[in-house]
Amino acid sequence: MHVFADGISRVTFSSGNLRIQLVQRGANNENVEAGTLIIPASQANNFMNGLANSMKELDSKLKEAREQQQSESQTQK
Fold first, then answer.
1. Three-state secondary structure call for residue 43
2. For residue 34, which of 24, 46, 55, 70 is within the disulfide window of CB 3.0 to 4.6 Å?
3. 16 — alpha (psi -120 to 50), left (phi > 0) or beta?
4. Res. 53: pLDDT tops 80
5. With 0-12 CB in 10 A as exposed, 13-18 as middle and 19+ as buried, what is 39?
6. How many Å is the Cα radius of gyration of the chain?
7. Is the dihedral of CA 49, 50, 53, 55 positive or negative?
8. What is the pLDDT of residue 54?
């Protein structure tokens, strides 16, 4: 299942689970509920660290690709 989210409306803790309410930007920039991401509290730290590390890796790859593209465009001139 795929869920598109523009943001987070709230984070709560209930019954041993972290609940992250996801939202999409709708008409007139109103937030529309998109779903709830539920993570067991015992896994929340590992989950968040994994997400943060994945974002760092992705950022590094994108930066590398931009630099390579700029280098190639300068050599073509």
1. helix
2. 24
3. left
4. yes
5. middle
6. 18
7. negative
8. 97
Structure tokens at 54: 């994945």
Question: What domains sit in the chain, N to C, each tagged with a CATH number?
Answer: 7-71 (3.10.450)
The Cβ of residue 63 has, within 10 Å, a number of other Cβ atoms equal to: 10
Interval 41-64 mean pLDDT: 96
Q: What's the token pair of residue 15?
A: 């019954």
Q: Which residues pair with 20 in a beta bridge?
A: 11, 37
The mean pLDDT of 6-32, rounded to a whole number, is 95
The answer to whether 32 touches 9, Cβ cutoff 8 Å, is: no
For 1-77, where are the alpha helices, taking DSSP H only?
Answer: 41-75
pTM of the predicted model over 0.85: no
Closest CA to 24 of 10, 3, 51: 3
- Distance between CA atoms of 63 and 52, rounded to whole angstroms? 16
